[in-house]
Design goal:
With 199 residues, this protein is mainly α. Helices cover 73% and strands 0% of the residues. The protein contains 11 helices and no strands.
Amino acid sequence: MNFLAHARLSFNNEAVLVGNMVSDFVKGSKQFEFPPQIQAGIQLHRRIDTFTDEHPATIAAKQIFRREYRLYSGAFMDVVYDYFLANDAGEFSRESLSDFSRNTYRALDRYADLLPPSFQRMFYYMKQQNWLYNYREQRGLFNSFAGLVRRAKYLTDSGPAEQLFTAHMELLQEQYRLFWKELKPYAEQQFIELLKKTE
């Protein structure tokens, strides 16, 4: 899953949110340098990623991008999932997504001294360009595709991803629905278990 989903699946706990958002920027034993609830967020992020990668809906949806993008097909799906989450009326209205995005940025700002430098650099652009809210718009989704291509060593063109998304949007949305209804309760269970260990 991508940033919006990890923020949503922090269940309004700011310390867990920090860990969930920075997990990919924390390597090895560095995670143990953070306070316990941030460590819980880091672990939650990793469990969510494993669940996502192994879920049949994700495996099926990735096939749409695999021929063109091979090992990066999962990264494209992470962004696609955030697009559908941002447009999921059961999770967000346009107004509540806007509020949620602002509140997420503010919470992360309160922990600015603990954010890894590499995350801080990216977070500046996340706030300036309001990534979390803009996942709602197809333009925002395609901008994320382009950003993914820019950061990847062996990719040069996000155009095919845009075409594949447009051609298979209904199928991708159905895979999102199947996936999210199982991911959310799983993540909540993991959240509860991980927080108990910090008491």
